[in-house]
Specification:
Order of helices and strands of chain A: HHHHHHHHHHH
Largest interface: A-B, 32 and 32 residues
Structural class of chain A: mainly alpha
Helix content of chain A: over 70%
Number of helices of chain A: 11
Radius of gyration of chain A: 21 Å
Strand content of chain A: under 5%
Largest sheet of chain A: none
Low-confidence stretches of chain A: 1-6
Distance between the termini of chain A: 78 Å
Oligomer: homodimer
Number of strands of chain A: 0
Amino acid sequence: MMRAMATRKYEQRLRADAAEETRQRILDAVGQRLRDAPTEPVSLDQVARLARVARSTIYLVFGSRSGLFDAFADDLWARSGLSNLTEAVAHPDIREQLRGGIAAASAMFAAERDIYRVLFSMAQLDPDSVGGAVQKRERVRARGMARVGRRLAEQDILRADLSADDAADVLWMLTSFESFDLLYAARQLSLDRTVDLIVATAERTLYR
Amino acid sequence: MMRAMATRKYEQRLRADAAEETRQRILDAVGQRLRDAPTEPVSLDQVARLARVARSTIYLVFGSRSGLFDAFADDLWARSGLSNLTEAVAHPDIREQLRGGIAAASAMFAAERDIYRVLFSMAQLDPDSVGGAVQKRERVRARGMARVGRRLAEQDILRADLSADDAADVLWMLTSFESFDLLYAARQLSLDRTVDLIVATAERTLYR
DNA sequence: TTTTCGATAGACAGTCTGTATTTCAAGATA
DNA sequence: TATCTTGAAATACAGACTGTCTATCGAAAA
């Protein structure tokens, strides 16, 4: 019974707002669930109950489980101080840029350590399970480290026996969440101490 | 109908051998499965089929899923060059010990990178899921790094502004599987290059 | 009043895990 | 040879979770 009906235009201000709020409530529920028991697998049923939403709504809004985690990771990054990081990286002095970048990233990780831990581990185990959000961020980081390496070489800060690529490799390792976590969580160092050690390691290894 | 029956003694040579072989076949199946598709979750059903064994047999032999992975991790470590590592660490010169240890561990990781990746990620996500084998190994590593840090301090190799504990922290970070993997897998460096970079980073950061 | 659409509710097939329980078959013993 | 022992198979079952789909509600927009 197809009928050619002139479809009305819909502005849907209030409804779109409500939808956005639902979406955010689900993302918050994921965070809450992850914070409560980082070590236990997250079931969409739990998330739905926490967000006071039907499980089917999650599929409706995010399409899939991985879509949900993808959106969650993006949201987390945006909220937890991505701006601090980009600000730090804007510093004119490349040495300060490196120091500040490591400090900003570490503070960001520290604020939600358990959650980042889960996200990165999930991404390692199965990249698709977080939908690519982690890889996307890591690609940005890779470009950033290449840039820093180049700058250090250009400005003759780098040791003579190191190329810009070498520097990028070392920085890639040292500025990872993993390096942060090995000191901050596994070794229980304070945030400041963690940052100091990573920065010191980078500078002594790379600077002439 | 309890009957006090004199229980016979059983030598069971052949049968015990067969059991040991079954056990090993299951462990091999885990490895094979992991190598085939490191990114997909491992179901005991798949493992059982690969080992040509009933799924219930896995529970019979290993008690639980985590018991299986625990045994697998132990077995893997024992096979994949743990001896090389302990040999390297026996060198009289502490500097050679560090170099050799990093080289041996890296070679070990490289030989079965995908499997170690899964094991470490699983352990991060939920320590119980691998039954403690990873933690056990990591505790050994922690003691090792503390020892190296102490030696370096005693022999006055360490920079003046670093304590033995500081050195242990840095070494903990640099000798981790994660550091290895960030260079070897993520950055696609060769094994030699990976070892060189890690060793160089350690020496430049720690040595006076 | 009538559309439209975000969200609910429920059902369903499929995959996994753990835990029994029963039975088989072959090695060990007398 | 007859009998005991035990590793392993076979099977069943409850419970958790995923992804998909369909029917329906209810409130905002026209």
